């Protein structure tokens, strides 16, 4: 039977340091508050009675916030179950509607884009981690293209892509642009019309909201990609009873992130500068993306010759949650496809570690991380392969 009592492993992480915000951010207390209040009543937002109308209010208030976050009209925001759904909805819709036209995705996309449809053509990135605009233009010239999908901020490196330059090229060649904005929301300003974005995918749990809720935001091209059919929810663009509490939590998290964005950027930039300048004192550390624009919260580094799995386990034993850049498939750990696309040799890519901070990261957390780093680095230094 499901044990409903909080499990010590799942409840308070005493003396633990969480630096894996790009995987998921801790939920914000204000978000828990609004979700708790929304969950206390039965709210089917489609019901006409008083309880349904109260549910509708939560949903429409959140829609206004996401509209403000993206600078789009509220009517263009469709709530769904998160970014995997938003990405699949858009790519599958275009693959079905335009079977004779190609779909381009960048080489550094999240698996929810890469695996959404077969037969995509891949746009390479430069060694500095940004999309190769010349290669994109050649691909657009070579074949009629219906859709191009590129992320705004990469989840592994934190590198910000030149979306306006990409959308100019895409539109010049008569295609539309889908942008996975998951790792950008709340970290950099998103002005979808000014950036020329036609479809924008968002997810609540990377910015302090709940898991399992997100939005597909429509630009002004007039197309509504649809995946799920059934009830008429979300103006028939996404069937299924609205996740009222989740949507309310998403709205609250986005509202807080928007209000705090400048403070967030300056606070985390200072923390990251301290983190990276200290890390660079250890020999052979490579930090990625330093020559490209990056969001303030992410550091991706590597130690050549070491395995990120071993490093992660060492940090976990110290009570520190960080991530690697690798994906595990069929029991075999492969170096990250993102670093591979940046031409990074396997020897360095295999020892990649990602540290990602967020709304609740404090200077003491970075000091604790650096103390653990020194201990682990000293222990493993002899195994590092110098160039
Ligand atoms: N896109 C990016 C860039 C991500 O980082 C993630 C989450 O890891 C997703 C999409 C998938 O988001 P969700 O968990 O909402 O399905």
State the name of the first-level CATH class of the largest domain.
Answer: Alpha Beta
CATH topology of the largest domain: Aspartate Aminotransferase, domain 2
User: What class do helices, strands and sheet pairing give?
Assistant: alpha/beta
User: Which value, in Å, is the CA radius of gyration?
Assistant: 21 Å
CATH architecture of the largest domain: 3-Layer(aba) Sandwich
Q: What strand order characterises the main sheet? A: 2-8-7-6-5-3-4
| Fraction of residues in H or I helices | 25-40%
Give the biggest beta sheet: 7 strands, mixed
The CATH superfamily name of the largest domain is Type I PLP-dependent aspartate aminotransferase-like (Major domain)
What's the total count of β strands?
A: 14
Structure, briefly:
It is built from twelve helices and 14 strands. The protein is α/β, with parallel strands linked by helices. The model has no long low-confidence stretch (mean pLDDT 93).
What does this 3D model show about the protein?
The strands form 4 sheets. The protein has a 7-stranded mixed β-sheet with strand order 2-8-7-6-5-3-4, with helices on both faces. A 3-stranded antiparallel β-sheet has the order 9-10-14. It has 12 helices and 14 strands. The chain is α/β, with parallel strands linked by helices. It has 2 domains: 8-27 and 261-386, Aspartate Aminotransferase, domain 1 (Alpha-Beta Complex), CATH 3.90.1150.10; 29-255, 3-Layer(aba) Sandwich (Aspartate Aminotransferase, domain 2). Helix 1 runs antiparallel to helix 8 (244-279) and helix 8 crosses helix 12. The radius of gyration is 21 Å and the shape is globular. It binds pyridoxal-5'-phosphate. Residues 82-84, 110, 112, 151, 155, 180, 182-183, 203, 214 line the site of pyridoxal-5'-phosphate (PLP).
């Amino acid at each position: 039977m499901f044990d409903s009592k909080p499990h010590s492993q799942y409840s308070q992480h005493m003396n633990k340091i969480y630096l894996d915000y790009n995987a998921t951010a801790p939920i914000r207390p204000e978000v828990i508050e609004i979700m708790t209040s929304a969950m206390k009543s039965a709210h089917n937002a489609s019901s006409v009675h008083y309880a349904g109308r109260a549910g509708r209010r939560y949903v429409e208030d959140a829609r206004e916030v996401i509209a403000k976050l993206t600078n789009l009209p509220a009517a263009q925001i469709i709530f769904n179950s998160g970014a995997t759904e938003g990405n699949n909805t858009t790519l599958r819709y275009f693959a079905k509607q335009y079977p004779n036209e190609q779909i381009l995705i960048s080489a550094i996309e999240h698996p929810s884009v890469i695996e959404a449809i077969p037969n995509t053509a891949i746009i390479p990135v430069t060694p500095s981690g940004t999309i190769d605009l010349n290669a994109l233009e050649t691909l657009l010239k070579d074949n009629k293209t219906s859709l191009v999908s590129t992320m705004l901020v990469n989840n592994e490196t934190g590198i910000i892509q030149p979306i306006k330059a990409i959308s100019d090229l895409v539109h010049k060649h008569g295609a539309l642009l889908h942008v996975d904005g998951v790792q950008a929301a709340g970290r950099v300003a998103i002005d979808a019309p000014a950036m020329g974005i036609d479809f924008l995918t968002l997810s609540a749990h990377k910015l302090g909201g709940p898991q399992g809720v997100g939005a597909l935001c429509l630009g002004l091209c007039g197309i509504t990609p649809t995946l799920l059919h059934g009830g008429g929810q979300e103006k028939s663009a996404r069937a299924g009873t609205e996740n009222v509490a989740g949507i309310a939590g998403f709205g609250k998290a986005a509202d807080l992130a928007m209000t705090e964005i400048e403070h967030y950027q300056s606070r985390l930039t200072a923390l990251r500068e301290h983190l990276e300048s200290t890390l660079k004192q250890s020999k052979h550390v490579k930090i990625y993306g330093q020559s490209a624009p990056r969001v303030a919260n992410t550091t991706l580094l590597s130690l050549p010759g070491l395995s990120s799995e071993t490093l992660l386990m060492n940090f976990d034993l110290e009570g520190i949650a960080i991530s690697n850049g690798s994906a595990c498939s069929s029991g075999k750990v492969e170096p990250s496809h993102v670093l591979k696309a940046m031409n990074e040799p396997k020897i360095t890519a295999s020892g990649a570690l990602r540290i990602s901070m967020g709304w609740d990261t404090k200077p003491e957390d970075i000091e604790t991380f650096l103390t653990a780093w020194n201990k682990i680095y000293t222990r493993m230094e002899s195994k590092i392969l110098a160039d």
